[in-house]
Structures
1.
Amino acid sequence: MTDRRLWTGAQLVTFADERDWGLVPDGAMVTEGDRLRWVGPRDALPAALRADLAETHDLGGALVTPGLIDAHTHLVYGGERSAEFELRLQGASYEAIARAGGGIRSTVAATRQASEATLHRLALERARALMAEGLTTLEVKSGYGLSLDDEAKCLRVARRMADTGLTVRTTFLGAHAVPPEFDGRQDDYVEAVCDWMPQLQAQGLIDAVDAFCERIGFTPAQTRRIFETARGLGLPVKLHAEQLSDQGGAALAAEFGALSCDHLEYLSDDGIRAMARAGTVAMLLPGAYYFLRETRLPPIEALRAAGVPIALATDHNPGSAPGLSLLLMLNMACTFFRMTPEEALRGLTVHAAQALGLNDRGRLVAGQRADFCIWQAQHPRELAYYFGRNPLQATVVGGRQRIGD
Ligand code: NIG
Ligand code: FE
């Protein structure tokens, strides 16, 4: 007896090629273990694969998409920043609040105070909200500990979330802000971050390295130092780039073969060209754009024209994007960024996987991981159309239906 399972009665969104949805109206899938063994029109299913089935599922005409991937989050932190939200509504800018010692630093204080158990409970609650809308793979950044022990604590919490069945990728963002004990010694702090990197890597806590290259973050020279250290350790890099100003961060990250550059409202033509050459993904974060009441759009048309793959993520964090809805990101990407519903969903699947360096997921094709979402919808554009309505029927992770979504 195999553990082969047959799934029929589904309209499949395969993203099998770069052109379109890759719709298969009356589709079937065969999963074996945690993989897709076969995907295609039901009437083309080879007879040999109908034999020895452990289970058969008739999905009753539901829509099936690849599992959703949130490839940019800051999910592990203590406290919240609603008071800062009120200040911003009264006219204070995100940058001014950060310079006055609020912003990231206030979350660092709350995160240092919180126990590992508390951080785990809070992060799990947030992950559950994302899973209720079909999350199957999650990236989590550190960056609210900013000491070796506190960064390790947060990264361990992130890793432990894999207990839910999610695939979790962790990114070390020690260069998120300068902690108070390094006040006025920013270069020393960068050296400390570079010292911690191999130690955290040795503990198995890092898959990639990120930095916040910004006027209120780190300079391009400091970012380069972080990236050189990462490269020496064989760790891929990504960057918070061009969110509030053009620092040339994207071109710098592309020089290091970055997996993704994220935010990008102030991205220049040079940055776009460098990203296109390096195959770096443009990770757009409509939740932060919205919540910071940003008015400058990322250069979508130029990214498209240059053939840069565009991904989307929630950027969940307590300062610039406290939202926990992947479906809302689809809607916002279309309304704010004028992406097509197809581009938006591709951004939360195919291109999100690419931004994590994971080439075994994001599409419904044979050989990929059997991570998929089953939706009550007639057409995939509905996923981007509604907001505040969740048509998820079930999620399958590694070939098994997830319970409790
Ligand atoms: O992606 N820009 C830097 N990091 C986060 C915000 C962090 C915070 O405000 O706590 C972001 O927007
Ligand atoms: Fe972020």
Note: The chain has two domains: 4-66+362-403, 68-355.
2.
Amino acid sequence: MSMVEIPEKLINLLRTARSVAVLTGAGISAESGVPTFRGEEGLWKKFRAEELATVEAFMQNPQLVWEWYMYRREIINDVRPNPGHYALVDLENHFEDFTLITQNVDGLHRTAGSKKVLELHGNILCNKCFECGEPYEGEVEIKEGEIPRCDCGGRIRPDVVWFGELLPAAAISGALDASEKAELFFSIGTSALVHPAASMPMAAKRNGAYLVEINLDPTPLSEMADCVFHGKSGEILPLIVERLKE
Ligand code: BJW
Ligand code: ZN
């Protein structure tokens, strides 16, 4: 993709905006080789993750849930950020006030060099206690179905947010603040189906932000977006950064 039409209004905002916020989802890591959740190649086609990413699943079959996370950790250990992640580092360096809100648990934004990152759904490489929530620094190996335990006796689990669980308070309040004050908001590579993450672009728009969506396909956000780029984030974001440097 060489020619992408960038609306005049967006070009102006790229020059003048002080406050910018971004929400990313699994799509931004797809070009790095991390499977998305939904869609044709989605993780959830092979693994019934609506059943795996829940507290109930862990209580019923912690070993199965752990196997799914171990499989995904192996993938994530082998991947590198892609041009989409790096373009967001350039954007952070360009704007006075820039917040990157991510639903991804893969840590690739930080690996790329982004500094102000709010991880709404946790980090798949970290562990905590299922009972008391204390971080667990030890190695996790699942041997013969035995799951390591915390000092309190609780089982160790991945430090991610499952359906029905509250998001980390600091991340969600930081995300909401950043969204409400953003003049320019980008929603990138997310199906915008999972709340409260999907409410962030809506909050931004409600507060007057210019809303840009980058996605392969339309989403529930597309209709309210001021500008929609249909394509790969790893191709479109670098083109936007190029315009900013002109
Ligand atoms: C590309 C591309 C390329 C591909 N370039 N694009 C309000 C209304 C309705 C329901 C609720 C609500 N508030 C809360 C709920 C309940 C629930 C919810 O949202 N349910 C909906 C599904 C209906 N939310 C929760 O339970 C949340 N907790 C909560 O709200 O607590 C309070 C509460 C509890 C109960 C009731 C009410 C309030 C917690 C949500 C936790 C989500 N956790 C997961 C798993 C994390 C751990 C793990 O990784 O295993 O997070 S689910 C999964 O979905 C993961 C993701 O972060 C999240 C979002 O997915 P994402 O990133 O959008 O990925 P995909 O695959 O869906 O989309 C990829 C997109 O990329 C696609 O659009 C592609 O086209 C595109 N793409 N390649 C650009 N190269
Ligand atoms: Zn504990």
Note: The two ends are 19 Å apart (CA to CA).
